Amino acid sequence: MYPATRDAMLAHVGQSDPWAALHFLGLSAVELNFNREAQTPGFLGRGGQPFDLSSPAGRREARAAFDAHGASVCALLMANDFSGDMETEVKWGVSAVEAAHALGAPAVRIDLVPHQKDYDRTLFEARCIEGVKRILAATESTGVGLGVENHGHITNDPAFLDRIFDGVGSPRLGLTLDTANFYWYGHPLERVYEIMSRFAARVRHTHIKNINYPADERNKQRAIGWEYGQYCCPLDEGNIDHARVARILQGAGYRGALCVEDESLPKRPAEQRPQLMKRNVAELKRCCAIS
Fold first, then answer.
1. 260 to 93, 98, 185: CA distances (angstroms)
2. Helix (H, G, I), strand (E, B) or coil at 181
3. pLDDT value at residue 21
4. Mind giving me the DSSP string for 95-163?
5. What does the pLDDT look like over 52-101, one tens digit per residue?
6. Can you name the residues that pair with 31 across neighbouring β-strands?
7. Number of domains in the chain
8. Which of 104, 136, 162, 210 has a 20 to 30 A CA-CA distance from 228?
9. Which residues are CB-neighbours of 109 under 8 A, at least 6 positions away?
């Protein structure tokens, strides 16, 4: 395993460009936000413009830029909506997988959350299964994995994840494990480790963040999202033992990125954030070393 960061985190480091931010943090791997225009709005390249990954030429240019800086892309991130137009979602998903393959990224983070209010859950599950199957079938030769993030009110439910994995029936579909989201969902801390262990062999990518709940709240069932804004924190201040998580993942054969996503940074003064990010990276390196 190796440390990485979401591109969104680089904005907190206060450097002149994303390459300088990676160097400041001592990182060489980054997850890129892949928008519906097939661009990277969170990571600006030459001339302060996002990379255009919509064409083979644009992908080659991006790959060359990362190679020149001794850096790599650990994953692309999508914010899918399978409650919307299926043809659009499938086409976008295929484009993301093809771009990830060209960049050497092993995974694409997908998001199975309906964007329409009061959307029928049974229908949504069926559409997710259909859409993912179609994306995988169209990109079979790439070998790139899709990682459903446990995110929001649906995909933090292990039963939902089981139905999606069973319905798709492909080893290329797995989990983008967000280490704090199961905890955010209200699962007691020990139950969080149990869920991680159950799905560890399915992990294709990660988002690493932490929460520092009071001692009397940690090992009981809480309301979804209970006081998250107050208690989210840097990686080394929270209740989740990421060295333990790393050992779980390594034992299941995961060798990918531990990718920092610290949502507590906006609570801190801007001048403190660069060093907080350095602490986050140091914590990830520690976990990689002892896993």
1. 24, 24, 19
2. helix
3. 97
4. HHHHHHHHHT--EEEE----SSTT--HHHHHHHHHHHHHHHHHHTGGG--EEEEE--TTTTTSHHHHHH
5. 999 999 999 999 999 999 999 999 999 999 988 999 999 999 999 999 99
6. 6, 75
7. 1
8. 162
9. 31, 75, 76, 77, 78, 147, 149, 176, 205, 207
Q: CA 215, CA 38: separation in Å to the nearest integer?
A: 44
Express each pLDDT in 114-145 by its tens digit: 887 777 889 999 999 999 999 999 999 999 99
- With beta carbons less than 8 A apart as the criterion, state whether 178 and 228 touch: no
* pLDDT for position 291: 55
What tokens appear for 26 in the block? 């001592």
- What count of residues does the chain have? 291
Residue 79, domain CATH: 3.20.20.150
Is the Cβ–Cβ distance between 200 and 251 less than 8 Å?
yes
Q: Which residues contact 229 (CB under 8 A, 6 or more apart)?
A: 267
Retrieve residue 115's tokens: 């964007």
Show the domain range for 81.
Answer: 2-290
CB 184 within 8 A of CB 146: no
